[in-house]
Amino acid sequence: MNTFRTAAVGLTAAITGGALLLTGCASTTRASVAAGAGSSSAPASGAPSSPPSASSPSSAPSPSAPSPSASTGSSSGAAPGGAPAVPVRNGTAGNRLTISNGTTKVVMNGTVVDFGTVVRDLAWSPDGSRAAFIDGAGNLDTANADGSGRVMVARAPSGENWSHPVWRVAAPDSSVGSPGVDEILFAASQGGKTVLKQVAPAGGAPELLTIPLTDDFGPGGNPLPQTGNTWPTTGGRAGTVLYANGGTGDVYIRDDNIRTAAAKLTIGSEPAISADGGTAVFVRSVNGHDHLFEESVQGNRVARDITPNATTDYTEPTWSPDGRTIAARTPAGIATLPADGSAAPTLVSSAAGLPAYRG
Predict the structure, then answer these.
(1) Which of 82, 183, 236, 345 is deepest in the core (most CB within 10 A)?
(2) Which residue in 93, 100, 128 sits closest to 114, CA to CA?
(3) The domain that contains 157 carries what CATH number?
(4) What is the value of pTM for the model shown?
């Protein structure tokens, strides 16, 4: 069971073995985080990691459209991590992987689908039937998987930039006091301030996603940043939310039970949570490259580098629906690797953009 989901009943901090353990909460503030075997380095004690060099939450994907060879043909090149050169196709046939790049074209199903409008930061509903994205005017849209049935869910106010929408859907669960939820979360930036907002998929006025002022641990609680929050991701039976904060360089976890609770999870950026809500993957800088790390959001919280031999940057990770595969962006295209880190990443597409899996 996700231990964080009991937070609303009562969160208790206990010091065990020199680490701060949060009873009833999956997140923890540690003086240091151990990297996995084979990791070339770990972040300095208590220091935020460097931001990813290849991307940032506010940056738009490459504006270039996928080339014909990237979408339907083949090419060759060295795979990330120094693997031998192999033929590379678009890598999206039969695996639910999609790639959006800020044009009207989305790579999926082994081909390219034209949505008829600019598609940025594409995300999918849990059942894979609808896409959510930011259109060319900066508004939040949804559409069917073939680009039809497009609906403008919300219009961005003048001067406000929206990014990285994600569907948050969860059924009511009376056993833990979790309400049902069906909404789209996204980051909204204006005047140098970034916050998370929420809106119903059917449309309406977006509202601020509540972040508690403190995490309720320690005397008076530790303050939680109210701005700089970005890159939301959701998963699990109760729709647990992870998000990053550009100011602190940390990943945070937020949940709704009887009341809303949140806390720091780990050092990193660009988090993605598995569909079952049990594991986070995120980005950390190690020796000049952006690596992918994994960490449980439940009881056993040790960050593990699943790309320890990286010779390129891995950013913007995403989970396959079955939790077995992680896809990530690289300068050469999209790479995938086993979620347990048992094999090196393989370049599966030379089409550049943001990877996302249909549910």
Answers:
(1) 345
(2) 100
(3) 2.120.10.30
(4) 0.78
